């Protein structure tokens, strides 16, 4: 069975930008090309291991910051600046993850062939992603989210994923765009409550 | 240069690398195989002895240069003290 994990807010990766995320300790680079297509790869350049998340997007390719090797949307190396006449072999490629978007979140899957399950209709506006210094189990229990990746409640939609064993990312989106600023503050209060071991208050507007 | 009727790299150049240093030979040999695969190079022969890895590698010259640079640095926990590289233009290298 394909496991899909919500790892970021899609709005945090505008076209032409790059962002790192961690999922269960794996380091992944998310980047969106100029056409708006999202890509997710292992955050490690096949050349010398530089983080690709330090790189930049140029004409549909991700260029590594270190020596400038360029990788196309499929992860294949297409240009090596030190050898401009060389056609890089197809063996030089970044390791790709499967990526999709729904409910305003970016979802990743490492393996498996199943698509991201269809979700309830509705447009959601991204509010805030925030790191909580607690294990996923603690955060999930505090939010009542269980093993599900997302929880929809009172116009809020919350998603959590384990960055590693000690840090959990909480991503918050809202059904009503007018609630986005309050939801961002709610995410901060929720982080503070969970880190202090206090109950989560669900009131959005204080 | 290596060439035969069924050589998949008929235009390949080849170089012999001798790498001496303080490392686990098996680990270093695995690294050379991985790097060669990444760069679409062919390892014609690979020999190890304590503190020594010797590889005869064929492929595109620019990619051989990248392979050489990678081996000069080596994987983590491996220290390369000395490395030689020589072109092999005939069967005497085999
Ligand atoms: S480490 Fe990325 S191009 Fe060299």
TrEMBL record, chain B:
Protein name, entry field: Acylphosphatase-like domain-containing protein
Native source species: Tanticharoenia sakaeratensis NBRC 103193
């Amino acid at each position: 069975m394909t496991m899909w994990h919500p790892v970021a807010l899609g709005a945090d990766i505008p076209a032409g930008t790059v962002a790192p995320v961690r999922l269960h300790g794996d380091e992944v680079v998310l980047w969106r090309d100029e056409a708006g297509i999202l890509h997710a790869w292992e955050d490690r350049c096949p050349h010398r291991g530089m983080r690709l998340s330090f790189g930049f997007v140029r004409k549909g390719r991700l260029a590594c910051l270190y020596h400038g090797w360029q990788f196309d949307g499929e992860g294949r190396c297409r240009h090596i600046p030190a050898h401009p006449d060389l056609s890089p072999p197809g063996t030089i490629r970044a390791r790709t993850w499967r990526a999709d978007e729904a409910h305003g979140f970016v979802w990743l899957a490492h393996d498996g062939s199943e698509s991201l399950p269809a979700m309830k209709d509705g447009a959601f506006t991204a509010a805030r992603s925030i790191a909580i210094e607690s294990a996923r189990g603690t955060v999930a229990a505090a939010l009542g989210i269980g093993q599900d990746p997302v929880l929809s409640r009172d116009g809020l939609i919350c998603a959590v994923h384990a960055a590693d064993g000690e840090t959990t990312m909480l991503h918050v989106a809202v059904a009503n765009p007018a609630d986005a600023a309050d939801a961002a503050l709610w995410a901060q209060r929720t982080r503070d409550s969970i880190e202090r071991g206090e109950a989560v208050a669900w009131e959005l507007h204080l | 240069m290596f060439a035969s009727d069924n050589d998949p790299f008929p235009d390949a150049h080849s170089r012999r690398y001798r790498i001496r240093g303080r490392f686990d030979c098996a680990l270093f040999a695995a690294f050379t195989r991985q790097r060669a695969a990444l760069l679409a190079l062919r390892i014609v022969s690979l020999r190890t002895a304590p503190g020594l890895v010797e590889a005869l590698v064929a492929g595109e010259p620019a990619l051989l240069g990248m392979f050489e640079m990678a081996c000069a640095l080596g994987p983590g926990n491996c220290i390369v003290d000395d490395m030689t590289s020589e072109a092999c233009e005939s069967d005497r290298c085999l």
